[in-house]
Amino acid sequence: MAVYFLLKVLITAIVVAAVSDLAKRSSALAAILASLPLTSILALLWLWYDTRDSVQVSLLTRQIFFALLPSLLFFIIFPLLLRAGWRFGSALSGAIGFMLGGYFVYVWILARLGIRL
Predict the structure, then answer these.
(1) Angle, vertex CA 109, rays to CA 108 and CA 115, nearest 5
(2) Residues 108 and 98: beta-carbon distance below 8 Å
(3) Tens of pLDDT along 19-33?
(4) DSSP letter at 104?
(5) Measured in whole angstroms, how far is the alpha carbon of residue 44 from the centre of its chain?
(6) How far apart (Å, rounded) are the C-alpha atoms in residues 61 and 117?
(7) CA distance 99 to 78
(8) In 3D, which of 54, 49, 52, 39 has the Cα closest to residue 9?
(9) 57: closest CA among 68, 69, 46?
(10) 50, 35, 38, 41: which is closest to 4 by C-alpha?
(11) pLDDT tens-digit profile of 57-103?
């Protein structure tokens, strides 16, 4: 079981490393690769392999969908803060803070609409 877990970590790390290395040569191609739902696809593959439970995979897919909208706040706020002269770490923290706030507001709105995550 430990070997399987390490394999999952290694494959996932290779994908992330590939994006960061590709960004040195072509930010557009790296952006395309990063924008693919690779993390979600990998998570769905690992979950399916571990459980063979299509209901669980379907539920995770639905929850990922609902989590996407607030995560977009990060990609809007982060470059704005960098252009405004914020240091990288501060801009990253600020964008993460906005995104987390967006998640709280989003979950509250969904609850009001009767949608449970």
Answers:
(1) 95
(2) no
(3) 888 888 888 888 777
(4) H
(5) 13
(6) 11
(7) 10
(8) 39
(9) 46
(10) 50
(11) 999 998 888 888 888 999 999 999 999 999 999 999 999 999 999 99
